[in-house]
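Ligand: WT7. Inputs:
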Amino acid sequence: MSETIESILDEHRSFKPPQGHQGNIASLQAYHSLCEAFSNDSDATWKDLATEHLNWKSPFSNVLNQQNAPFFRWFEGGTLNLSENCLDRHIDAGLGERNAIIWESEAGEVRHISYSELLANVCRAANAMLTLGIRAGDRVVIYMPMIPEAAITMLACTRIGAIHSVVFGAFSPQALKDRIEDTQARLVITADGGGRRGGVHALKPNVDAALSEGCQSVEHVLIVRHAGNDIEMKAQRDLNWHEALHAESEHCEPLAVDSEHPLFILYTSGSTGKPKGILHSTAGYLLWARLTMLWTFDFKPESDVFWCTADVGWITGHTYSVYGPLACGGTTVMYEGVPTYPDPGRLWKICADHDVTIFYTAPTAIRALIKAGDEWPNQHDLSGLRILGTVGEPINPEAWMWYHNVIGKGRCPIVDTWWQTETGGHMIAPLPYATPTKPGSATLPLPGIDIAVVDEEGQEVSDGGGLLVLRKPWPSMLRGVWGDDQRYIDTYWEKFKGKYYFAGDGARRDEDGYMWIMGRVDDVLNVSGHRLGTMEIESALVSHEAVAEAAVVGRPHDIKGEAVCAFVTLKGDVDDASAQALATQLRAHVTKEIGAIAKPDDIRFSNSLPKTRSGKIMRRLLRDIAAGREITSDTSTLEDQSVVQQLQKSR
Ligand code: WT7
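Predicted complex:
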């Protein structure tokens, strides 16, 4: 990033929302009165919204049960089915022929899938799972490219109450195996492969590798034929998706489940240990997916075409590629391929070709496209766009301004949305026709969301930075960490003694009450909008036979936001030439253990790592060295003083 955090905080530009639109929340005043309704009686307000926005099989009797906090329960007593809310409901309203999904492959193949067609396929897939013995509460792991079948399997799970866990297709067999074992999934749904950069990214062989050892819980693997790459089929275990679905009826009764029935598990990295399985439940998540679509994106399902570029392997893909748009009965775009293939105009071409009106992507993608030059967006007709969104990391004002001017032609409000895997949906975001925006600020909390910036003791700070907390439970909050209640408490609630949810981000609130997110305060990196635990990468590195010790930190990176920088000490001595070769090996090793997104950008070897006398690795010092900055930390407690010079030279 060419701008520093100081320059972001020095940002004073403000942009008024465009006039002459009837937004779903039409003015700042309307926003404030909704917020006020929540502060006057939050239960009653949630009750009204949940009653109005969801189709209930049987009504709930209790809005929020806090008795077992922080294990909150929402809308107790109610029953509903998520797929019914996303499909049957709209078809019953006469929208069966509307496009639910517009899918485009990298090679340019396009599929339009109507609500009726989507429902028929979801039912067939749900029936196929039932035939395989999958029942409510069973876990199903989904390891797929960005194809409609990914959304179909997710919805099919919800139709029968199975709990899905989507694993990002670029994760390694080892990462897949860890997730299968943690969820104890009975079924894995995958594809032969996906299309990427003009070639094929094989998936089924990764499943085979993951299942070659352990993973005893898996009984079947269902395989979508998509990329046409050669795969082996293991007798009894492996089944062809198309044959399995063909044999089934296109009717499947939606199972009404309890509001709190587990909906999905999605793994995310933290500062300690292996990734944790974030658990979401049905009603609260669905309500917030729908409301934030309507509020933050001002979604008008009858006229909008919504495109969120995230993969379904991430929470953004869950909530805003699939569940949010479908819960509203609108059209969602799915693209299988890289944004720069065959040229950096690809995203803008897709926007123009499919008349996209609302576009949602990550700052890292914006920065990469800025670099490619304005001629790419300028070749395409972007006049249909009306709202632009960003997510995943702080957006630097320079990128914000480019997005605003070059993509939005100064017409489109930008919604910078702060949220997390754990929050299920947006927490802080402008309302496009109500909230004035400032480049780099996610602006104000959404109605019903109680945000504060506090110091280490939990006292609200009035100016300067602090820690971001949520002071009240919200319907789409995580319900726990799969199989590890204690970790849920320790990670999110321990810090403020059960009073506040601790998000792990630093933030500042300005004089207008606007929120400026300053990044993670824990040992979590944000690389291209993806969360990576430093410890996870360190464990991957030390699992290599040549490595004695490793410390991983982030350093600023123009496009990715943060780059992964690894400091490594080896078991034996190596000369420069073999160090080079070893660095290549270690990168491959991390790719194998976790996936290419975790691959270190820099690897620096040294005889030892800088530690305090009590043996703690001095991470702040390493961050300064990694960034090539002047050293700001106190090195007087450093055990071996010569180590700093060695590390600085080790590039
Ligand atoms: C972390 C959550 C939520 C979908 C994508 C990432 C960072 C997210 C913003 C934003 C500044 C942001 C935070 C957060 N983050 N959105 N608009 N501005 N930072 O989900 O992998 O769960 O990561 O991403 O650090 O804690 P995730």
